[in-house]
Amino acid sequence: MIHIRVPEVRMDVASLLPLTTSRLSLRLFTPGDADDLHAYQSLPSVARYLYRPAHTRERSEQVAAERAAQTAWHADGDGLALAVCRRDEPGVLGEVSLKLADARAAQAEIGWTLDPRHQGQGYATEAAAALAGFAFDTLGVHRLYARLDVENTGSVGVCERLGMRREAHLVENDLDGDRWGSEYIYAALSADLK
After folding, report:
1. Cβ distance 83 to 28 under 8 Å?
2. What is the CA 193 to chain-centroid distance, rounded?
3. Where is the N-acetyltransferase domain (predicted)?
4. Partner of 130 at 20 to 30 A CA spacing, among 59, 83, 109, 179?
């Protein structure tokens, strides 16, 4: 019998941030980011792929404050949402997120949302790649997966550029208002991306 020893990872990730790339800085949200967050989270075209209603201004303020305080990485459900910013100018372009789905099995869900004004410039792929590297190399994640609407071709492209494989196609598995939505699940193991 093979025994697998799963390392216990307990940390507050705040001291490890920001993450930087050649063009971007990924940092914790601050309450002052509410306006930038609301600019894209209030759009029905963005909310559609997140399976929830568009945010009100008040909800954007709550979300910015909640995300600023999310820094624990230990238990199932712990999450990290980072503001995606250009290194050379102020403002939030979007966000990337990790959610610890199963602490014992070291599995996490990755996600990204970009303001439509900043899409098509490679920012989502660059930010997601940096966060995936952080998840594998620093947080000890074994398997990283993304769930996305099959009609979200931009996110399909991000997954494929990251080297993730399509593991599932769930047909009409979610009801978004009056529309049935189908999902793809993409995933990668830490060994896949090294």
Report:
1. yes
2. 17
3. 24-192
4. 59
Closest CA to 84 of 29, 46, 39: 29
- The residue whose two tokens read 């060994």 is 191
Q: How far apart are CA 176 and CA 166, in angstroms?
A: 22
Map tokens 């494929």 to a residue.
160
Q: What is the CA radius of gyration of the chain?
A: 16
The model's confidence at residue 114, banded by pLDDT at 50, 70 and 90, is very high
pLDDT digits (tens, 9 = 90+) for 2-37: 544 444 556 789 999 999 999 999 999 999 999 999
> What distance in Å separates the CA atoms of residue 127 and residue 97, rounded to the nearest whole number?
10
- Alpha-carbon distances of 150 from 17, 103, 161, 168, rounded to whole Å: 32, 27, 16, 11
